[in-house]
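Quick note —
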Amino acid sequence: QVQLQESGPGLVKPSQTLSLTCTVSGGSITTNYYYWSWMRQPPGKGLEWMGAISSSGSTSYSPSLKSRTSISRDTSKNQFTLQLNSVTPEDTAVYYCTRGLTPGTYVFRGQGTQVTVSS
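Predicted structure written out below.
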């Protein structure tokens, strides 16, 4: 069974870049027809899809975050990463990496990592 684990700093200062890595085990990120997404859940709000990278390496992003978001991968390490630029306190959330059959849905999800944006 595939497992996903998020890693990265828990505290980021405003205007800086948030960088998170998802390490995948039990399955390859290049296996056909899967989408590897980043999602987040701010305090008291619902789950928000941020973007995804497909098994072939193509990317798609939420229109509301597209200008600040970049998703890439390292197939040699079976990892994919999230970069979110120019963060503000509104970017404080639990961030999840997921695997699904479409960009905005998931079957498997990591345990999540708390990221707080604060000076």
